Amino acid sequence: MSILVNKDTKVIVQGFTGKEGSFHAEQCLAYGTKIVGGVTPNKGGSEHLGKPVFNTVKEAVQATGATVSMIFVPPVFVADAVMEAADAGIELAVIITEGAPVRDMQAAKAYATKHNMKTIGPNCPGIITAEECKIGIMPGMIFKKGNVGLISKSGTLTYEGANQVCKEGFGISTAVGIGGDPIIGLSYKQLLPLFEADPETHAIVMIGEIGGDLEIQAAAFIKEHITKPVVAFIAGQTAPKGKRMGHAGAIVSGGAGTAAEKMAALEAAGVKVVVSPADIGKAVAEALAK
Amino acid sequence: MNIHEYQAKQIFAKYGVPTPKGLMAESVEQAVANAKELGGPIWVVKAQIHAGGRGLGGGVKLARSIEEVEKLSKEILGMTLVTHQTGPEGKLVQKLYIEDGADIKDELYLGVVLDRAREMPVIMASTEGGMAIEDVAHDSPEKIIKIAVDPAIGFQGFHGRELVFGLGITDPAEQKKFISFASKLYKLYMENDAEMIEINPLVKTGSGDFLALDGKMGFDDSALGRHPDIEAMRDISEEDADEREAGEHGLSYVSLDGEIGCMVNGAGLAMGTMDTINYMGGTPANFLDVGGKANAETVAKGFEIILKNPKVKAIFVNIFGGIVRCDRIANGILEATKLVDVHVPVIVRLDGTNAPEAAEILRNANIANVIAATDLADGAAKAVAAAKQAK
After folding, report:
1. A 167-186 residues inside an 8 A Cβ radius of B
2. Interchain pair B267, A245: CB under 8 A
3. What ipTM goes with this model?
4. What is the pLDDT of residues A4-18, one digit of tens each?
5. Minimal Cα distance from A102: which residue of B?
6. Three-class DSSP category at A199
7. Across the beta sheet with B314-321, what order do the strands follow?
8. Which of A99, A160, A246 has its CB closest to that of B222?
9. Per residue in A176-235, pLDDT tens?
10. A185 to chain B nearest CA, in Å?
């Protein structure tokens, strides 16, 4: 078991033949992901990395039965690609591209929701079910199979957290990098119940950031609905107010969305909150030893 | 990206959002000429900097004669204006906006921002114009009206009615004017990929007209490519020189007050690294995200920017390689030591893709000053210790 994706998940790649798309699709194939083809307009009928290339997502879905799309197209084409995937009946779009305009994502997300398509990202490392299916750009080798679910806004903190969990002798069921943009797809609140329902997941690591209120919403949800132990870290405790720290989401303003507020809300919900990301692994080990 | 008030008002004018007449000046002579052209009898001399709170800081003053315009322009141009948004160091005033004085009857607030929870723009309005909206939100949140507008349907009549009734505007002619004002503002927010617009105050004049007395706009950096006219409004003198230089090399840099320079990949890990340094008793000197496409050149640039800060006593390089391969970072560190005089200890933690190769590269290079760390905690501890030793 795992959440959202596993070894049988059929995946297509939008932006398949581009530089980034090619490099990462090859890495995913090497990891064992069932990539069944890709989409690049005007290259339909050809083959790339030993898989068929289609002109449209619709053709790709009809020919391969793919249910998930990994999106690598350039930023200004992201919204178009997401809406095309939704229109073609894709169930989950994993959007890796960084720098998609916010207005575009508003429209794309609304359209995806209308078509019951889930999205992850944009500007994220993707999703990985350890030793089964990697859809994204994370270094696969650090994700050993195990019983810890991970949700993170930050890409590199996903790796940091997973690596520590594995070094403590545990492993990852599924890890999801949700991205830190102002408009994102699946968030903590939608992913937590999936981990709660997954018998293979025994504990959950949640990595957040300053800015927005997704972690506050998550805290309220955890209090009501989550029985499994949750370990959390919020990045940006030392970030000065009003300064933007790389991610569009990581900006504190007007007193809302500070690390302190989020940490307090999570602690009040019974979450084990660590002050340094270096303590994530240890905290997970302690939670699972109980 | 942010723009000046006078530029925001140029955009307002293009969309028919009413503003007082005004002209930008970069010298006292120009300010006086502008005042003469506007005609008076009352002018407002306004400092143009990218920060709010200019009035309270002494950067906005009323003039009742051309002589007074000249006197105030001399005072304000070239002053360092300190407001609650500039930080204690303040901002140098290099541009003025000379504007017609308005007949103010009421002061309102109107803004448009993205509501992340609803994933659509929200129009915010308040009768408490002229005050810091943060304070209004804190002290009397019921005085802020929030109307979310779904871009799929755009600004509709009911949005307008909710606004005017919420603000207590009862005169039908005034209602019509305000609704038109708000709908134009929403339109220009959407069409220009704005991140936020704030008009504080928006005034009602004695004759029942609504005027944008102030105007603040920020834009989505990711969308600037399709707005060359907006991008042309960039005023680089308003941006931190080091932050801008870093940006030109694909690095995201923010300077802070501490002693330990940080070079990290990914915004989250970069903040997490700062938090860990702080937790271990040290102080971070900066936030620096080398991004996903780091190479020897960009990393060397990162060192150069970090080392410009004389407070830096040690540098912590913390890389977890996903897209960024660690061997590239290792080569960057070697390159940097050739290009820049790295006179402080550099603690290096490289993990992830090609970490063993990276360790090999650093070992073979055998550079003094470079200290290897095994993980985040180890690296942060060593950096804190090195900075303390350097004192």
Report:
1. 180, 182-183
2. yes
3. 0.90
4. 999 999 999 999 999
5. B220
6. coil
7. B252-255, B286-289, B260-264, B314-321, B346-352, B370-372
8. A99
9. 999 988 899 999 999 999 999 999 999 999 999 988 889 999 999 999 999 999 999 999
10. 11
Residue type, position A131, single letter? E
Portion 94-153 of B in contact with A at CB < 8 A: 114, 116-117, 119-120, 134, 137-138, 150-152
Candidates A139, A180, A237; nearest CB to B353: A139
Question: Phi/psi class of residue A208: alpha, beta or left (left: φ > 0; alpha: ψ in -120 to 50)?
Answer: beta
Q: Hey, is A24 helix, strand or coil?
A: helix
CA–CA distances in Å: residue B234 to residues B92, B224, B228, B245: 16, 10, 10, 15
DSSP secondary structure of A86-114: HHTT-SEEEE--S---HHHHHHHHHHHHH
Q: Tell me the mean pLDDT in the region B18-24.
A: 97
Contact A163, B349 (CB under 8 A): no
CA angle A12, A18, A21 (to 5 degrees): 45
A63 Cα to chain B: minimum distance (Å): 31
Which residues, listed in sequence order, are joined to residue A47 by a DSSP beta bridge? A52
User: Least CA distance to B254: which residue of chain A?
Assistant: A245
* Residue B120 distance to chain A (closest CA, Å): 7
Chain B contact for A154 (CB, 8 A cutoff): yes
Q: What is the pLDDT of residues A12-67, one digit of tens each?
A: 999 999 999 999 999 999 999 999 999 999 999 999 999 999 999 999 999 999 99
